[in-house]
Design goal:
single chain; alpha/beta; Collagenase (Catalytic Domain); 6 helices
C-alpha cells in the first residue's frame, strides 16, 4: 500500500516539559503516524501547545472553555488535505498517564484521530459514525504496532 505524500510542519510552543514532548514526537514518527491515516496527499501543521493556548483556541473556535487534547482545523480535503492539528501537551500527558499509555502512543492516537477529522470523519454526528471512526483508528494504529486505544 502506497502512503500519501505529506508536507509537515511540526511546531512546539513554549511550554513546560517541552523536552519530554519533543522526545515523544520525533518528526519521522509524526509523519509516519499521519501518513498512515491519510487517504490523499496533505499539507499539515502540527502544533503542540500549553493549556492556556489550548483553552483559548477551544473557547474561540468551539465555544468550550477548557483545554482539550486535540483540535483539528481543516481547510481543504481535495485535491490535497490541508489542516492544522493542535495538541495540548498537558492534557495529552495527563490522559496518557490516566490511561496507562506511553506519551508517544497517546500522541500517535490523537494525531491519527485529528487526521481523520481533517478528512471529514466525525464521531459527534451519531453513534454509527463514532463506531466507524473508532474502528478506522484501531485499524490504522494496529498497522503502526500500537494497541487498541479504547
Amino acid at each position: 500500500m502506497a502512503l500519501a505524500d505529506l508536507s509537515l510542519s511540526l511546531q512546539f510552543a513554549r511550554l513546560r516539559d517541552v523536552a519530554r514532548h519533543r522526545a515523544a514526537l520525533p518528526r519521522h514518527r509524526v509523519a509516519r503516524w499521519i501518513r498512515h491515516a491519510l487517504e490523499a496527499d496533505a499539507e499539515i501543521t502540527v502544533r503542540i501547545v500549553d493549556a492556556e493556548e489550548g483553552q483559548q483556541l477551544n473557547r474561540e473556535f468551539r465555544g468550550k472553555d477548557y483545554a482539550t487534547n486535540v483540535l483539528t482545523f481543516d481547510y481543504a480535503q481535495a485535491p490535497v488535505v490541508m489542516a492544522d492539528l493542535v495538541l495540548c501537551a498537558p492534557v495529552v500527558a495527563r490522559e496518557a498517564k490516566e490511561q496507562r499509555k506511553t506519551l508517544a502512543a497517546h500522541y500517535a492516537h490523537l494525531l491519527v484521530h485529528g487526521t481523520l477529522h481533517a478528512q471529514g470523519w466525525d464521531h459527534e454526528t451519531g453513534e454509527a459514525d463514532a463506531e466507524a471512526m473508532e474502528a478506522r483508528e484501531i485499524e490504522i494504529l494496529a498497522r503502526l504496532g500500537i494497541r487498541n486505544p479504547y
